[in-house]
């Protein structure tokens, strides 16, 4: 059912929910529309609901809904608290909601969130995603997810900390799942938000776009499951609107006395044309498939890693700070790099 651009539409039929067949309801640009009938929740097959450009403040809980768009909504200030109960919601787009100030906990099945340009957004719930303490992924949950807070310049520091904490937890969760299911490729997570500090949980950090940590012996082992990367990108020197998309990437080169390996990783990308103001923090997780398929890096020797962070199609912007962390896991949870090294040392000394 498509009513896009019906600018004089003020209300919908109260018995709209009696229509069982529709899978998509499009109300984009219905600028006078302020509500959706509560019985819409009874539309058992509704998958897509587009409410961009409306004045709707509350959406009935539609269990079947997978994609919800609320972009350009000028009436909504606080997104409803029961959104976490939308048990099948995969995609939530709320770009340029100029009065939005608060995000509640989001559904644990959510794979894509975009609140680009919500300039009055101040706070997000902690935890950002409901039930995030569940250790393992549901088998139906996607291993690729993106959460974008681009140009949300009024975020409180607590909100940025909550986003960073969720990113750390998500990287851990993916590492555990990839280890348990023996997944060597396909898992990916990225997020970005306004900021100028690499989160403290990245144990290797550097000023600028080059990072060269030295990894101790036994850094590569069966518990290594993924790599978390962080780049702080400055857009201050880029006074021209960005046209099209650009990506944040990292070239990694591992070297020791017996071999070397070089490959590229994606940290994230943006597809929003226009100005990006202030610095932004980009965080990405990738699996270690390139390492697991390559045997030229022995685990018994110290290894030097050179990381070069760079941007595509945004040459006037630059990476000003960067960070790196190896993600280890075992069946009871995740380990930090220093914990792995300590365990191997104890094992060597016969203390384990």
UniProtKB/TrEMBL annotation:
Keyword Repeat carried by entry: yes
Domain of life where this protein originates: Eukaryota
Q: Which UniProt keywords apply?
A: Leucine-rich repeat, Repeat
Residues covered by the C-JID domain: 194-331
Matching entries from Pfam families are given as: C-JID
Matching InterPro entries, A to Z? C-JID, LRR_dom_sf
Q: Does the keyword Repeat apply?
A: yes
Gene3D superfamilies, per this entry? Ribonuclease Inhibitor (3.80.10.10)
Q: What name goes with this protein?
A: Disease resistance protein (TIR-NBS-LRR class)
Which organism's genome codes for this protein?
Arabidopsis thaliana (Mouse-ear cress)
Q: What is the lineage of its organism?
A: Eukaryota, Viridiplantae, Streptophyta, Embryophyta, Tracheophyta
